[in-house]
């Protein structure tokens, strides 16, 4: 026979735990009732907290989508070289060979005038109009793509080599939109962090100010509680629930504002992405993001409640 394991929770412990839970439920109900009786103040606090959370959260979503777009696009910087109309094929191939030997070059694609004419006719449908011309008006061209490790200095060197050729008419250096997106992503990332800190402090202060008013409105009741022996933690407990409700409500407002903003900008974003050959697929607005926002809002609200109620409760004097 195995020895009987003693229940670690005695009857007294169970009663105490049940009393503690019932007290928390009672305090939470009172907090909800107190807030519901003041809809104007509550809506104002929720709106202020929501605005404070919406901007950094929106920038975070923007950063996530920019990173996703730049990671899923394989474009690379390069340049296009347009030859003179009288440039010979030998000069074109010789320049292409020299460019292939340059550092940072991933590929060199040569398009002769006849090939350029065929491509132009295929994509524009102007075959009949071009047939009326006495000669081919399109020059030869060379397309140079750089590898992923190439630097801006390498691109400038290659452009200098091409520009020094007598048979070259024009050199177009292409600074791809991917590089610009990466720069914008870095700016948005740092800006969202700074704004998250600033607006997070603002949300705490807004909640703290609202709870300070709630404390002052119930000051006589708190004095009575302290008179009958309530601890500072017990007196402060309802206001922590106030902060959690204010913060959670503000997070819900922030989510609604972000959803509305996404609906407004979805159409122009779709057009912008389509112009670069990419499909718009917004990411980040997931259940985990919703849970994080609600938890963050509740945490900021509780922080505001602690800031406001901690010192004020200790200063209550019984006369």
Which terms would index this structure?
319 residues, alpha+beta, Alpha-Beta Plaits, 2 domains, four-stranded antiparallel sheet
Question: What would your notes on this structure say?
Answer:
The protein is of the alpha+beta class and 319 residues long. It has 2 domains: 185 residues, no CATH class; 98 residues, Alpha-Beta Plaits. Helix content is 70%, strand content 8%. It is built from 10 helices and 4 strands, in the order ααβαβααβαβαααα. The chain has a 4-stranded antiparallel sheet with strand order 2-3-1-4. The N terminus is likely disordered.
Q: What's this, in brief?
A:
The chain has helices spanning 11-36, 39-72, 89-100, 113-124, 127-131, 152-163, 177-217, 219-227, 232-275, 287-314; strands at 78-83, 105-111, 141-146, 168-174.
Describe the secondary structure blueprint for this structure.
Blueprint: H1 11-36, H2 39-72, E1 78-83, H3 89-100, E2 105-111, H4 113-124, H5 127-131, E3 141-146, H6 152-163, E4 168-174, H7 177-217, H8 219-227, H9 232-275, H10 287-314
Antiparallel strand pairs: 1-3, 1-4, 2-3
Helix pairs in contact: 1-9, 2-7, 2-9, 7-9, 7-10, 9-10
């Amino acid at each position: 026979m195995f020895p009987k394991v003693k229940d670690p929770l005695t009857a007294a412990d169970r009663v105490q735990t049940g009393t503690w839970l019932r007290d928390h439920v009672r305090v939470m109900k009172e907090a909800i009732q107190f807030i519901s009786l003041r809809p104007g103040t509550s809506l104002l606090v929720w709106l202020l907290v929501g605005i404070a959370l919406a901007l950094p959260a929106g920038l975070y979503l923007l950063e996530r989508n920019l990173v996703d777009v730049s990671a899923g696009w394989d474009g690379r910087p390069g340049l296009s070289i347009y030859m003179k109309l009288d440039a010979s094929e030998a000069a074109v191939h010789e320049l292409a060979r020299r460019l292939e030997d340059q550092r940072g070059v991933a590929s060199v694609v040569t398009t002769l005038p006849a090939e350029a004419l065929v491509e132009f006719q295929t994509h524009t449908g102007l075959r009949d109009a071009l047939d009326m011309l006495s000669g081919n008006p399109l020059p030869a061209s060379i397309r140079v793509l750089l590898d992923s490790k190439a630097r801006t200095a390498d691109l400038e060197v290659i452009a200098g080599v091409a520009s020094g050729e007598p048979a070259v008419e024009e050199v177009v250096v292409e600074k791809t939109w991917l590089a610009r997106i990466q720069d914008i992503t870095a700016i948005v990332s740092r800006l969202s962090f700074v704004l998250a800190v600033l607006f997070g402090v603002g949300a705490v202060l807004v909640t703290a100010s609202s709870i300070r008013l709630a404390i002052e409105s119930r000051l006589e009741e708190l004095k009575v509680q302290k008179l009958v022996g309530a601890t500072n933690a017990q007196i402060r407990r309802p206001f922590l629930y106030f902060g959690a409700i204010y913060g959670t409500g503000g997070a819900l407002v922030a989510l609604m504002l972000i959803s509305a903003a996404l609906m407004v900008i979805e159409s122009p974003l779709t057009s912008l992405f389509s112009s670069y050959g990419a499909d718009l697929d917004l990411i980040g607005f997931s259940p985990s993001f919703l849970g994080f926002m609600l938890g963050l809002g509740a945490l900021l609200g509780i922080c505001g409640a602690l800031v406001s109620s901690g010192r004020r409760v200790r200063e209550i004097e019984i006369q």
